[in-house]
Specification:
Blueprint (H helix, E strand, L loop, with lengths): L1 H36 L22 H14 L10 H13 L1 H11 L6 H13 L2 H11 L4 H14 L6 H10 L3 H14 L5 H10 L3 H15 L4 H5 L6 H17 L14 H7 L5 H8 L5 H5 L6 H13 L9 H5 L7 H10 L8 H16 L2
Helix pairs in contact: 1-2, 2-3, 3-4, 3-5, 5-6, 6-7, 7-9, 8-9, 9-11, 10-11, 11-13, 15-17, 17-19, 19-20
Length: about 375
Amino acid sequence: MKSKILILLLLTSRNIFSQDQQTIEYLDNKIADHFDNYTPELYRYGGLTFYGETATTFSSQQVDEELELFNLLKESPLLDAPSKRVFALSHNLLIHSPKQGRELLSLLNRPTENTEIISQLFLEALFAGPYGEEVALDNLESSNQSWSEYWAGYLNRNAIYDTSISRIMSAIQSSKNVEFQLNLLSSLMYIGSPQSVDFVKQIIDTTKNDLVQARVIFVYAELTGYQGIQVLEQVKTVGENSKSEKESSLKWLKEETNQENIFGTEVSNDSDFAMRFGDINSPSMMWLENNGFLKTKMLNNPKPLSKEEKNKILDLLIESKCFGLEAIKGALFLSIKQEDMDKLLELRRLSFYSPNGYTTGRAKTLGIFIRSLKKE
């Protein structure tokens, strides 16, 4: 009798697995068919150098079809092992139906060891802006230690919003995992807010861990710049790593920063980019060309923009999905003010609209802009 029950259970589980597999294949193929007719925005600019669109539009039929696919996905086993097509759908939804896009991102956010899926989740979190960073913070508190460590690594490289600071500090204090702490300490540096300075200084003074102290010395130097020299000179190091970091941080601060340039930050226009892409008809590049900003003299010797010029090029860069930033970044850096923060954060998000070989560089440049404003 027991053997018959076991056989029935095995047959039932196989049948369920077979049905799930059929559902997965059917829905994934349905999404594939959809993208045979419409462009997945996630891949629009991958490998291409055509940036001529002035706007991205979606027909009502495309939006309706993608919302229908989303509703099918919500209860599908395809969420357990999503394909790249599923993330492409998520990306489109984040653009034209943000509420549903965020909901799908939340459904896709589940622990996995699949590095391809993790990479796709990271990208969607970046493109989701503040909501994506909230997802990352939530994952820090996961009961799955490996999953929380993945997202500490994500924040180490990508944290940007001041609203994340208190939760990151709390996670650092509640963890005994050194690598986890190191990643989150670096995330405070990338956010770049003076709000973190006292917290970082307290760790410098109280930690007995050599690696942790080395990291917070580096973070403190980045957060305070020239004004942190006197404090760092008084630090009592607890080991060889922290001693070496103290020496190198002080050397950098004394050689590269001063009263006039507290953080030693300089940004130059990329003349090679301008020469290579100056004839591409994106809104930003056309305006730069028409206003003389692509001339060699202007590229090599950037000057501050007028308020009107700055506002115009920021709006055009947003329209152009960040394409063209390289050709004007030096002049922009000399011109940005606190009032530009929202546009800069939107540009950083849009640098992940359709990733290509320039995405990382653009995100880093905008990170420098954003942190420089926070430190003023």
